[in-house]
Predict the structure of Alkylhydroperoxidase.
Amino acid sequence: MQARLDLLDNPHASRILKHFTAAGRAVQDTGLPDSTRELVLLRVSQINGCAFCVDMHTKDAAAAGETAQRLHLVAAWREATVFTDAERAALDLAEHGTRIADGAGGVPDEVWAAATKHYAESQLFALVATIATINAFNRLNVITQQPAGWYQPGQFA
């Protein structure tokens, strides 16, 4: 696949992407576990069909110590027994926050309530910001047809 735009060589795209990246990094000091963040980034990217982000977040999570079993099961997390209740609440929030148009009224109250049982307010906002940011990245990459497979773990750190 040939990308429609070279996002790394375009000075305007690079400037804008730096802001998106900064927004994604801002959640790192909120207490949201890195493993939960990576699982959410991967699941949202799977839903949106963003091959570049699936490649990136699978590799980053594995490099950070995430197991292959858990990474393989993210797409079927509801039936998998390898995720904690907190991770399941985060993945549920991620799915509903990504599929807003599929459900009338957005994120159901019970999904939000489940997340509040496991995460403090700053962590909840970090989850919401992570979901919003990765959805934006997914759309940028899908629209411009960014190819997958070449990313190296930590490349954009």
